[in-house]
Amino acid sequence: MTPGRSTILAIAALIWSLPLQVLAAPQPLQTNLEYSVKANYLVRFAAFVEWPATSFADSRSPVVICVAGRDPFNGVLERAARAQTAHGRALAVRRPRTAEAAAGCNILYVGRGGGSLVPAGPRPILLVTDGAVSSDRGMIHFVVSDDRVRFHIDLQAASRSRLSISSRLLNLALSVRGG
Amino acid sequence: MPWVARLRSSRFPIVALASLLVLLIAGVAIAVLSERSLRVQTAREAGAQADLLASAVSGALAFDDAQAAQDYVDAVQVNPNVLAAAVYDENNRLVASFARQGETVPPVATPRPRTTVFQDGRLYVVRPVEEAGQTLGTARLRVMETPAAQRFSRYASLLLVLGLAALVVVVLAVAQGALRRANRQLADRAAELVRANNLLQQQMIEREKAEEALRQSQKMEAIGRLTGGIAHDFNNLLMVASSGIELLDRTEDPKRRRTLSAGVKQAVERGAGLTRQLLAFARRSPLRSEVLDLRSHIEGLRFLLERSLREDIEVVLDLPGDLWPVEADRGELELALLNLAVNARDAMPNGGRLTVSGCNLPGEDGAPDRVCLKVADTGAGMPDVVASRVFEPFFTTKEVGRGTGLGLSQVYGFVRSSGGEITVESREGEGTTFTVCLPRTDKTPQEAGPAPLLPPDEAPAKRRGGGRLLLVEDDDAVAAGVGHMLGDLGYRHVRVASAAEALAMLEKDPRFDLVFSDMVMPGEMDGLGLAQEVRRRMPATPVLLTTGFSEAASAATGEAFRLLPKPYGIDSLSEALTATMAERAP
Fold first, then answer.
1. CATH classification of B463-584, choosing from 3.40.50.2300, 3.40.720.10, 3.90.78.10, 3.40.630.30?
2. What is the pLDDT of residues B545-560, one digit of tens each?
3. Were both Cys, which of B60, B147, B168, B254 would link to B69 (CB 3.0–4.6 Å)?
4. Which of A28-37, B202-211, B212-221 holds the top average pLDDT?
5. B201 touches B280 (CB < 8 A)
């Protein structure tokens, strides 16, 4: 691969993305709001999903919410998680840098560039993907629909990973795969 | 307390009132208990519904799905009792709601914990929405308490039973009240009957008294009728006596003087006999049976009968000498005959003949022997209708004021009470015959006449006595006459005017051979009392009593004192004095 070619591509991308950024620039608040909602949802998911007992070291181990890749939440996630509990456990937020580290998560949000950190194989980790980041779908996949943050659920994948998702959550999903 | 008395007197029985009260209390208690349990149940149901809603909307709240929350809230509308339902998020902002007509749902809610509150007839239920420990908001319900109609239908059966019970109680009470009223009326009527009975008895007693009085007045009426005739007779006798006495003073011829004095004496004796008859007739005494010889008795009544009739009526007595004796009351028999005679007189306004005849009627077939008297007149007679009623009390054909209607009923009563019978035969224009039959008696009649008269031709001067007498007499004229007689008979005497004076005299000078006292005198003590006192103090002094009253006379003989009835002649006086002295000084 030649550097000139990659440079051209980068310039081209910049050119193409320029109008998008110009367009997006007047709405930074809306983006912030979107991620603020998503951060809240991540915290709420902890209450609607049950993990197998082996997922936690002991009864006082927190539910660990991880953000893989670039963190779009800008501290909102920590704030949302701070005062909350789920199943009698505290919530903890981490940002693993390796797949091994990510293996200790209970909820894993895959941000931009975080796909490589997803541990291989079926593990009891609620994998949350974001339509704004990639089209690869985890067990829960955020999308924006009618100006609202909604999600799709892949129940099959969750079952495979021995996670059970509350029917009340399933009711709210735009679509549920499997089950 | 007055209300207790009023309750007691009311027709509604206390037991029934108490039953109604108990029923009412029981009904209210059941209603209150039921109401309370209903509230508890309502609260439980509403709580369950709110719980359900809270758990259903947790997802919708968690992920801001207002539409889904609204769906759940709308589902609650199915329950008609839910007035309003709302779901608030964790910041108490309204997410979804519905409200019925007239209900409002505030957009921001006051933070509340889990509550269940009754207020203003509504039930407010607040339930937190939680998921796995995360608080997501609240679900709120506003529930109407069970509506009145529904509640009423719950109590309808209870009310029905209570109403039936009350109805039964009221019916029983009314029935008992009616029974009690009937009882009271019955008691009142019984009391009235008792009163009426008492009144009736009182009236009967009064009537008996009135009848007695009427009988008496009837007797007096007969006497009144007699009075005219008696006065006439007395005048004749007085005429004879006064003229005789005047002629006695004018002549010195002993033979003529004797004739004159005999005439005067006879007149006086006839007067004495007349008064005796009157006394016997007027005597008031109950039926006192004695054995009577009808022939001599009725012969003795001839004088009376003739006086009660008019001069144009002839009296014929046809009484055989062998008539059996009967037992009857002398006075009543005389009155009966007199009544029959008066009746006959009134039946013969133009004169006629009254026949009194007697005959013995031997008994047949075991019936007793009887003696019958027939009283027949030659008057107008009477129709059968009248004849059948003549013995009824107060029945009379005479005009008002002329007759009591008791005359023949007295006859009837006398005959029946004497054990006899009376019949009447009458033909119009041919006269009437009354037949009185009295039973025969085996007893022999007593000799009547307490004062046997001496033969008039015996000379009074032959009898002489001697002694000292105490004469007790209140009437000066009588005392003077008797004094002359005593002096004539050879007795000395001292005269006092009362029993008290006599006792004082005896105290002072007890040497009297005899006390000769009148019976009826003024003062505290009468002649009988004096005689008893004298007998007690001086048993050796004999007492001779005298009186003109038949009742006093019977009292004296009852006490075994010798009695000289007034009026008496010098001979009977001499005889009585001699007999009394002989009795007491053997």
1. 3.40.50.2300
2. 888 776 666 677 667 7
3. B60
4. B202-211
5. no
Is the CB of B132 less than 8 angstroms away from the CB of A86?
yes
User: Where in chain B are the domains?
Assistant: 2-146, 285-439, 463-584
Nearest-CA residue of chain B relative to A45? B62
Burial class for B55, CB neighbours closer than 10 Å (0-12, 13-18, 19+): middle
Provide DSSP, B491-549: EEEEEESSHHHHHHHHHH----SEEEEESS-SSSS-HHHHHHHHHHH-TTS-EEEEES-
More confident residue, B539 or B443: B539
* Cβ-proximal residues to B216 (8 Å cutoff; 6+ apart), any chain: B284
d(CA B13, CA B173): 6
Partnered with residue B373 across adjacent β-strands are: B358, B436
- In this predicted structure, the answer to whether residue B456 has a pLDDT above a threshold of 50 is no
What are A32-61's pLDDT values in tens digits?
Answer: 788 888 888 888 888 888 888 888 888 888
pLDDT at B441: 84
Show the 3-state SS of A60-104: CCCEEEEEECCCCCCCHHHHHHHCCEECCEEEEEECCCCHHHHCC
What are the tokens at B340? 């029959």
Query: Which of A47, A88, A172 has its CB closest to that of B131?
Result: A47
Q: What angle do CA B68, B74, B80 make, to 5 degrees?
A: 160
Other Cβ atoms closer than 10 A to B155? 15
**Lookup result for tokens 């000395």:** B492
Q: Where are the domains of chain A?
A: 28-177
Structure tokens that stand for B181 in this block? 């009223």
Residues of A in contact with B58 (CB under 8 A): 168
The ipTM estimated for the assembled molecules is 0.72
Residue for token digits 């006082």?
Answer: A60
Compute the average pLDDT of residues B179-196.
94
Under 8 Å CB-to-CB from A166, ≥6 apart: which residues? Answer: A48, A49, A50, B59, B131
Q: How far apart are CA B488 and CA B482, in angstroms?
A: 10
Domain B2-146 CATH (choose: 3.40.50.720, 3.60.15.10, 3.40.640.10, 3.30.450.20) = 3.30.450.20
Residue A118: the pLDDT is 82
Quick check: A168 and B134 CB within 8 A?
no
Would you say A91 and A43 are in contact if contact means Cβ atoms under 8 Å apart?
yes
The pTM score is 0.42
Q: Is A174 in CB contact (< 8 Å) with chain B?
A: no
User: Could you tell me which CATH class the domain A28-177 is placed in?
Assistant: alpha beta
Can you tell me the distance from the alpha carbon of B578 to that of B586, in angstroms, rounded to the nearest whole number?
Answer: 12
The least confident of A59-68, A130-139, B286-295 is B286-295
Give the side-chain half-sphere CA count within 13 A for B236: 12
> According to DSSP H, which parts of B251-369 are helical?
254-282, 294-308, 330-347
* pLDDT-based confidence at residue B64 (cuts at 50, 70, 90): confident
Q: For a pLDDT cut of 70, what percent of chain B falls above it? A: 84
CATH superfamily, with its number, for domain B285-439: Histidine kinase-like ATPase, C-terminal domain (3.30.565.10)
pLDDT of residue B294: 87
What residues of chain A lie within 8 A of the CB of B133, using their CB?
47, 85-88
Chain B hits for A37, Cβ within 8 Å: 64
**Whether residue B567 has a cis bond before it, omega within 30° of 0:** yes
Instruction: Provide the pLDDT for residue A152.
Output: 92
Contact at CB, A86 and B134, closer than 8 angstroms: yes
